Amino acid sequence: MRFRHPDGSTVHLAYCTNVHPAETLDGVLAQLRDHCEPVRRRLGRDRLGIGLWLAKDAAHALVTDPSALRGLRCELDRRGLEVVTLNGFPYEGFGAEEVKYRVYTPDWADPERLEHTTSLARVLAGLLPDDVTDGSISTLPLAWRTACDERRAQTARTALRTLAERLDALQELTGRSIRVALEPEPGCVVETTRDAIAPLTAIAHGRVGICVDTCHLATSFEDPHTALHDLTRAGVPVVKSQLSAALHAEQPHLPEVREALAAFAEPRFLHQTRTSTAAGLRGTDDLDEALSGDALPDAGPWRAHFHVPLHAAPAAPLTSTLPVLKSVLTRLVGGPRPLTRHLEVETYTWQALPPELRPRGRTQLADGIAAELTLARDLLTDLGLKELP
Description:
Order of helices and strands: EEHEHHEHEHEHEHHEEHEEHEEHEHE
Strand order of the largest sheet: 2-3-4-5-6-7-8-14
Radius of gyration: 20 Å
Shape: globular
Largest sheet: 8 strands, parallel, barrel
Structural class: alpha/beta
Distance between the termini: 8 Å
């Protein structure tokens, strides 16, 4: 979906396909047929943007076979879909029964992360619509915190500089500008937007910026205006933003609140949980840890890294951090010029919701994704953007 900003530029809105597990190119093509095109039809649009997730095998097939890349591009066109951004965070196995810490490997100290992201950039340059010259790729924020010492951190920074040089060369070759965005996430070396400033200014290259995920920002209790002001002042570009909402519990000391939270503690993904105290941010790596005894102070609200559907907040006594998303979006695109032009709805946890909230089959999932995109569209038009055909 495309929108015209009051300054005349185009803002792209997509939804991320990591909600549809696929490890191979055939699986990606099936996604387009079974999920993406049905969502587009529900929205009544001739064109729908998707934030494509390509696992390592799918990316390898596309970068090594020009005919396969042309075939994917033709399939996108045929189904009324377009790609301007990729989700390069998960490497493989994102549809496994247990993902947890595996999603953070390989990290940026591992040469395979550089090679994979380079492949993604080459693929994206070939997938961009004819009238679009700028693409974006979100990636993990260097590494999980316990896997990174200073030596590995330096290796990661060097890898990102090498990537930036490769992206420069790619633009010279193709005329397409691809940028990569570190996505701060609780528990990682770069957990907050503030954590991103030092490594990104050290790299000092416009090809590498930040992806502001509104669930992650809210989980870490960051103030949206302060966060975006600090990024702007430091000259760190917001390459893309993922529109997502975290799970919020206002009174976690109450038994009924803990019972409601326990329904969201599940075995597939990590749900880092945080609370803000007078002594600073406190947290656990997973929601079940927070619910175990006194692992986390409960005098103030808790937020958990669980991407809940944007249009459907959990039932009381829980809610979501949708107000944080709205505040971020206002700052990103509500001003005289947009701070980013790539927006991506990223609710990958539909099948991890409590059983009674999960979509039953493709039809309900498509309905839910379409409802999320409708909400995002309405927020954008309320900010003065005009939806384009």
